[in-house]
Every structure is written in C-alpha cells, then in structure tokens.
Amino acid sequence: MADTTIYYFSGTGNSYYVASALQKKLKDCNMVAITQVYKNSQIDPESKRVGFVFPLYFQSMPKVVMDLVDKINLSKAEYVFAVVTRGGKGYQGGVLRHMKKLLKDKNVELNLGQYIQLPDNYLPILKVPKEAARKKMFMMAEGKIETIARSINSDSNIMENEVASFLRPLMHNRFLKNLNSVDEGFYINEKCNSCGMCEKICKFDNIKLDNGKPKWQHNCQLCLACMNYCPVSAIEHGRSKGKERYNHPAVPAKEYLKI
After folding, report:
1. 3-state secondary structure (DSSP) of residue 37
2. Which of these, 25, 61, 233, 234, could form a disulfide with 192 (CB 3.0-4.6 Å)?
C-alpha cells in the first residue's frame, strides 16, 4: 500500500507532467490514470493521502473527474489534495470551491488546493503562448511543484484563493449540458493522411476511422488530445484553424499513448 495515491487526468500532458513531478517528490507515491478507473463501480484507495491532478475546465473540472469523485471511497484517507493546471491570466476559476462541495457531501475535507499555470491548449477559443512565455511557465511551475510537494509531505492545510469563482456554475453547467454533442464541432482539413493517431490517442474510444477518416462517437470529454497530438494538425474545432498545436514537451505522443 502506497502512502500517497495520485489520480490524474491529462489531455495534452500538462497535468500528467505535474502528477509525475509530484510523485517523485512525495513519500511512497503511486499514480493512477482516472481514465482507467472512472467506470469502475467501486474505487477504494488504501492510501492515507489521496490527491487529484487535472486541468481546469470551464472554471471547474472535467466530467470524468466528477465521475471519479462521485464514486471514490475516501473513508481511509487522512489527507486529500487537488492540484489543478490552468492556462490564461488574471483569475483561477472556481474548481477548488466546487471540489470542496463535492467532497463535503461525502464528509471529506479538501486539505490542500493549488493551481499551476501552464500553456493553454484549448484551441477552439485560445492560442498557445509563444515559446518564451511557455519556457517561463515551465520554470515557474517547477518552483510551485516543489512548494506543493513540501506542503503535502508535511500535511499542511493550504487553499489557494480563487477570483471570479462566481462564474463557475454558469460556465461549467453549460459545458456539462452540451458535452454529449460537443464533438459534432470537430472536422478535418485537407492535411489528414489517415494515419490513425487520433483513434489511438483518444482515451475514451471516441474516434473510429471510417474510410480512413476520423468519426467522433459522441462520448467526448473535450480533452483535445486528438487535435493537439495529430502529427499533421488536420483536426479542427471552433476557431482552431491556423493555430499552433500544443503538448507538454516532456509528454510526446509516444509517451501519452502509454498513460
């Protein structure tokens, strides 16, 4: 039994990298991919510390993370933490308050909640920061990961302040409402060479090739792995056309396929 278990979800490597970095700095820590367990009828970690690492989604969390939190049994956990990766500037969102509420309904306290800024990857609306800005984010993230690890190892109770968290219900509820149909917005451009990477990379079996072209199956979690890991940038959604794609440099496609 590991002293700490981290449950992680990652679309383009940011959260996976953070979870991996924390694992190396925490005492006797095990990592579990949420995509591998969220459908289980019962999830019972034995660790005394349990953490969640995932990206900010519309001011809160991905649906797959909500599904995990709903099912997980934390009766043996003495310390619970959440580390959230986010892009953007100026405000963090409302996911920590949301997580606290979900855990409170299970009579569990969220002991630590922190954000780590890393490059945006939501290409339907946003742009990937320029290389200099990305390098700065990576450097600052290393320092914050170190600080967070020390806090977890010492069982510190620290909650990062959230600004504009009142936007969370409006934005996140709309995201959840439209999730079953969101993949109707994906399409391919003329660059598609039928390589099949999109089908392989999707953690939710949501893409099937039809005559060599991807077809989405309406089970999307909007992680955008298919778009960002496509080797020829052939997948589009919203205002993504012409934008640089992104994945964390430490998590190339061959690594992401393993997680």
Report:
1. helix
2. 234
From 176, 200, 114, select the one nearest 214 (Cα to Cα): 200
DSSP one-letter string for 115-132: EEE-----TTT--PPPHH
Question: What three-state secondary structure class fits 52?
Answer: strand
Q: Which amino acid is at 229?
A: Y
Question: CA dihedral defined by 22, 86, 93, 105, rounded to 10 degrees?
Answer: -40
User: How many residues are listed for the chain in this entry?
Assistant: 259
In tens, the pLDDT along 64-99 reads 999 999 999 999 999 999 999 999 765 668 999 999
With beta carbons less than 8 A apart as the criterion, state whether 112 and 50 touch: no
- Contact between 226 and 245 under an 8 Å Cβ cutoff? The reply is no
Give CA–CA dist 38/204, Å, rounded: 11
How many Å separate Cα 53 from the centre of its chain?
A: 7
